[in-house]
Each structure stands twice: as C-alpha cells, then as structure tokens.
Amino acid sequence: IMENTFQKGYVVMELTPQLEAGLVYVIKVFKSQFGPDFTPTIISAHDSFDRHDQWSKHRVGKAVDISMVDISYYKRKEVVSILEKTLPKDYSIRWENQFSKSEYLHFQSKK
Fold first, then answer.
1. Which of 16, 24, 84, 111 has its CA at 20 to 30 Å from residue 46's CA atom?
2. Residues 88 and 78: beta-carbon distance below 8 Å
3. What pLDDT score does 81 carry?
C-alpha cells in the first residue's frame, strides 16, 4: 500500500488487516482508470483524533480518505461507480465534499 499511494505528511497508516485488504482493491480500481503510474493520495487514516468524532472508523484504523482533487469529474464519477458496484458488503464508500477544494473518497471497513 505504501509504495502505491502517496500519504500526506501527517497521515498515520495504522490500519486493520481487513481495511488494508480492501484498500489494495481500491488502489487497483484507481489505477485501472488512471493508468499504472497513478498514485492516489491518502489524506486521512488513523491520524484523525482531532478531526473526527468519537465514533469515527478513523480512530480505530478502519477508514481512509483518498483525495479526489485534480481528477476530472467524469473519472471521479467512474471510480465511485465501479467501487459502488463491486466492493464486497464488508466495505463502504462515500464521495465527500463534492466540487470543493477538499473533495475526497471516504473508504471504510464495516467490521
């Protein structure tokens, strides 16, 4: 995961094994749409105690946020569509802050 993503300097990548397994798949979907050299940027993981509420999956290593900034709308839409159709039921995504400077894809493990 670390070699196939860029992490903002403050991001702590302490993730559960289940989230890691799902994140590998999410990265593959991004690369299938943008090419093998595309590197998704993780902007939040298990580092969000000051930014997420006490029930957040981020606090227990079960969620990551991936930046969607600087990606064309149609490609963002395609990535979200593919993930919504193909992710196993143990995972969920939310397309957050659409059309803003902080747009991102929230990905989490339900277990």
1. 84
2. no
3. 97
